[in-house]
Each structure stands twice: as structure tokens, then as C-alpha cells.
Amino acid sequence: MKWSVLSPQGPFRSVAEAARGEGEVDWTAPEGPAHEACTLSFAAAEAAEFLSRVSGVQVETGAVEDVSPEAPFIAVLTPTALEAADGWVSERFGRVRPPEAEQSFAIRTIREGEASGYLVLGRDRAGALYGTYELLRRLGFRWLGPDDHDTHVPGALPRPLPDLDLSQSPSFITRGFHGGEDRGSEAFLLWMARNKLNLWFAAQSNKPFCRKLCLKFLTGGHSIYHRYAPPEKYFADHPEWYCLKDGERRGEIERGFGYNVCFSNAEVRRQLAENMVEDLISGENRWTDIMQVWPLDNGVWCECEGCRRLGNPTDQILLLAHDCRQAILRARREGRLGRDVRVNIPAYHETLPIPTKELPPGFDHAGTLVIFFTIERCYSHPIDDPACTEINAGLARFLKDWRENPDCPFRGEMFIGEYYNVSSFASLAIPFARTMAVDIPFYHAVGARHLNYMHVTTAHWGTLSLTNAQFAAQLWDHRLDCRAFFEDYLDHRYRGHSEAMGRFYDLLEQAMRNSKPLKHYAGLEKPRHCLFPILRQKGSSGSPLTIFTSEHLPYAPTHRLKNDGPSLLETLRILDEAERVLDQVFLEVTDATVARRLADDVRRFRYTRSMVQFLYRLIRVRLLENQDDPARAGLEARALRDVGEALRREDLVMRFQQGDRPHNRYENGLTATWFARAYAEVMADYGLETPDTPGGRLPEGGGKDTHLP
């Protein structure tokens, strides 16, 4: 069977040249025929590439302006390109219009004998690209992960070819990931586009390639003060610009941490906004689409009378965001900035509450977003589950306040920031299929139209493929039938082993529901439920450690009607059961492609199980130290060493995670525990030799651990 795939070639000499011609396009200029031809021709090239992988299929690409093809064919167009197609498209397909929403598309079919012709008509070039991938998906292709062996190519195309008459628009306009590093491989960026995701980091290199894929860029955040109002440049002449704390102006700002600026000082806001705009015009961030205007992360707030009069921290950061947005609009009016750049402010920690004051006159609601971060949440329950009175209920009230409270003056759009791989998770195999199935429709229902998560890994996903694939699918369609999606995922990823692997994922998600209090923190009130500061200490009978502070996470099984979650012992038991299922499938598999996928699954799962075993053994050491029982604690320390050294040998699966701080980049599984120093101290206490404690002695400096938060 010979297919033709057609697209506009625009100013290029051929479709093939246009498809790889992103370096010849000025992506900072207003969009025109070259931008459109590049993306649409790339979509055509992608369709040709994947169709040609099917046995018995030959494919050629061509310019839609030059030929009226015989079926089977695919024509990839936008309304602008449709006008240049010499009328043959309208003659054969009739009048076709895509939905009005940005990124939307329509797919139509004509039947000519036993062959079919397909029209993919995008509202814009993004819609045409996504429509092409949707057509390929309907023909049997899947992109389950960025690695080549995670691509599913059907053994044959459907017979007969499907008759498609459909239109789609995205449920969430902005869909992707949060971070700040240049770490997206071409394979990963392609996976994003193939799954209709469109938000990535402005730090990424090869930006023309990203723009061809219709990716938007995000930057800024906690570090904007370090970048745009650095105290080493301004503090000596303008100490009044900086934080007043205990009667003293403080200019300590280290990247995204330290003392916030004095938000009531109009001059520091003006200078910061001007520097930001110059960066957006001609600096490193001249590609940015969304600038994040945030306070410092857990920073100290100015105590001057002017800042107190401004209102709460949310009022203060909104004032800075207003000045930044107005500076952007001025630059647009003056012709200095050729694109619109929206700003977002965070609802995060101290800025979770809604503002208490009226917004400044002329506040641009349309150009300002609020990103609601769910970092305090648990994943044992959906975000709005009333049974989670200890953690999620309070967070959900803050979220609803931003959209439903009539006293909230902010009327801009809502962005959600999730944490499916928060830094301390360190790329553990934690599925979120059930959580996302409930939460993402809820986020849409409260008005959110933008969503990302921290911190996606970019290769060797293994079990993480399910989270990322479902995340992408639900952001495109919040009404997704998640159970049907799960079954489709299992069928395409594991083929004849789908039933057993479905059982494995169900067990794994059940086991890891308490991942937040176990491997991060949870709760709005301080001190939050967090094992890190507790287990880094050594208790005694006279001063015992209180380890289990959350109702969600007890040591042993406990029946609870509210705030339920698996106990530590239940987590271990369920992981053991999941391991038996996975090991059996891994032993039985004969399909080479499925075996490669399972190898990724097995490695990530074993790393995860070892991590939980490490925490279990460390907890038992501390519990026995509470009893002043060094003999039994020493035996537990030996068991801890076994699993700790196994984690030290694992140095791949956590390597592709982004983190905003040095301690979020892990050398190996042991540093990913966040207990490397505590581990070395325990080994030294009980005379156990490890690479960190030769002869059972701590090295000079008290232990090798640069990964503490």
C-alpha cells in the first residue's frame, strides 16, 4: 500500500526541507507562512516516518499546493494553508472548519473505493500537529515513553481504515512540566509533542526545534531577585530596597533563598521590572512565554511599616506582578517587545491565602495567572476528599477560595502546580493513576486551564511511563475514561502480559499512597509531617524520638475512617506482593520489546522497594535507640547497611531528574534517600564499615552528605 502525506511547503523548496528547516525560521518574529510550513511539514514527515514502519506500507511526502492525491493520503492543513490547496481539498471534503479554540483540530475522512483519504485541519499549526498525532493514534500507534523501545508500532494498519469525523480542543491550554534546566533530549521533546504537551523550560537549548514542536517556555520563579535585583549590584546604594528584619536592612539573597526585597518600595519594583523586560527583549529569556513572579522560597519577609500596610504576602507579590506586567505592556506598546509574555504568581506556602486588598488600578487580569501549588498535600486521598481532614481538606479550601470566594479580587486564570515527582521522591516508582483520575477533572471544574508538575525525568522511565502518559492524555481531555486508558496502556506496553501487569500497577499504587509523609512532607501546619528532620537525630529512653506524627502513616496497620493510608508494614507487605507479580512476568516474557520495557520497570521498582526498606530499617534503628538497646539496634544497623549499599550501587534511575537545588541531583540511590549523612553516622555508631566510614569511623567533616535540604 502506497500512501501520500501532504502539507504546505511555504517558502521552502520542498516539504522535506521545510520539515527540518526550523533553523531558517525567525521564531521570535510574528508567525507567518514559514512558521506554519515548518511545523505542518514536520507533522507530515512524522506521519510518513511512522506509517513507513508498518510492514507493506510505502509513503511519500509532497506539497499540498502541487497535487491532488489518490487515496490513501493524509493532508495536514490549517485554514490559511487550505486556501492555497487549489480547491481540491474543498472539492473532495466539502466545507470543513476546526473548532475555534487554539490548538484545536478536525479530522475528516473520504472513502474512495477501498482506500481512504484523511484531512487533518488545525485551527493553528499546533492543532495541525496534534491532529496528525491523533490520527496516527487512531491507526494504532502509541508513544509510551521517550526511549525508542517505548514506541508501539502496529503490526498492520486497521482494515478497513477507520472513518473519522471528529473535532478536538484541549481541556487545559497549557500542559507540561516545571523546572529550570537544559536537560530535554530530542527524544523527550518529541515524546511531549506526540502526546500533545506544550510547556517546557526556557533554559532548554535548541529552541527552534522546540518552537517547531509548538512548545511554550516558562522561566523566572524564586530566583528573579538574584537575577533582576541582585544585592551585590544595588544594596550598597539602595539598602532601602531590601528586607527590613529586626531593625536592619538585609540583602542576603542566594539564588532563590534568603531575604525578600521590600515590596512596598516602588523603586526596587520598577528596577526589577525594567531589568526583566530587557531580558525578555534581548537577553537569555527572549524566548519566554510565561514569566513567574514569585517571592523567595521560604524567604524572610520585610517588616517595614510600608510592607505591613500592603497586606498579606499574597497582596505584596501581586503588586510586584502588576508592575512587571505593566512594564511588559509598555514595551509592547512601544514596539520593543514583539510578543506577549504573561506573568504568574504562586499560591504557595505563605501566599496560599487569597489577597486581602483591592488590586492596583489597571491590574491586567487577562495577562496574570495564579499557579496553585499543592506541595503540602497527601496522595492517599484526592485533593478534595473530605475524609482527609488532617492534610488535603485545608489545602482544598484555599484552592476553592481563589475561584469561589466573592471577596477575592483576583479574576485571572488558574494554573495548577502538581508534584508527581517532587525533588525528594527522587524518581521513585510511584503511580498516580487513581489520584489523577479524580484530581484533574476536579482542577478543571474549579476553573484551572493550565497545569504542570515537578520534576519530570527525561529517560529510562519504566513504571513512570504510566503517570506521564495518563497525565498528558487527561490534560488534553479532562473527561478521559481513565480505566479504558489504563487497559489500552497495558495492552500496548505489555501485550500478552497486560492482566498481570495491571495487577502489579494496582498493588504498586496502593503501596505507595503514603509517599508524601514517607519521602517528602505533608500538612499545612508546622512542624509538618516529615521524617527527614526526625530520623537524622538519635533518641534515647530519656529523650525518645516521636517518629510517626501523622494519622496517615502509622507503623502497623490501624483501622481509621478518616485520614487513612497504608501503614509502614502494610506498604512493605504490598510491595512484596507486587514484586512477586513483576518477577513472574519478567521471567516469562519472550517478546524482546516487552522485555526491554520490563527491564526498565524492574530496575525502577527494585530501587523503590530498596528505598522503602532503607526507611524501614532506619526507623527500626531509631525505635530501638529510643529503648537504649544497642545490641538490637546494631542488628538493625547491619540490615540497614545491606540495603544502603544496594542503593549506593544504583546510579541510573534517578539521574534524569531535575531539581532546583544542588541536593536534588543525586549521585546514586543512597544520596537520593536524603539520609546519606545520617546513614554514615549510624554506621559509625555501630562500628560498621562502609565506603563513607572506613573501619567504622566517620571521615573528617562528619560524613559525606551534600544533599541535605
Key terms:
709 residues, Chitobiase, domain 2, disordered C terminus, six-stranded mixed beta sheet, 23 helices, single chain, 13% strand, alpha/beta
What's the total count of β strands?
20
Distance between the termini: 59 Å
How much helix is in the residues?
Answer: 25-40%
Profile the largest sheet.
8 strands, parallel
Strand order of the largest sheet: 9-20-19-18-17-16-11-10
- Average predicted confidence as pLDDT: 95
Class derived from helix and strand content: alpha/beta
Taking all Cα atoms into account, the compactness measure Rg is 27 Å
Report the total helices: 23
Estimated share of beta-strand residues? 5-15%
Shape: globular
Structural notes for this entry:
By secondary structure, the protein is of the alpha/beta class. β19, α14 and β20 form a beta-alpha-beta unit. Among the domains are: about 170 residues, Chitobiase, domain 2, CATH 3.30.379; about 130 residues, no CATH class; about 170 residues, no CATH class. The strands form five sheets. Strands 9-20-19-18-17-16-11-10 form an eight-stranded parallel β-sheet. Helix content is about 40%, strand content about 15%.
Summarize the structure.
This is Alpha glucuronidase N-terminal domain-containing protein. With 709 residues, the protein is α/β, with parallel strands linked by helices. Helix content is 39%, strand content 13%.
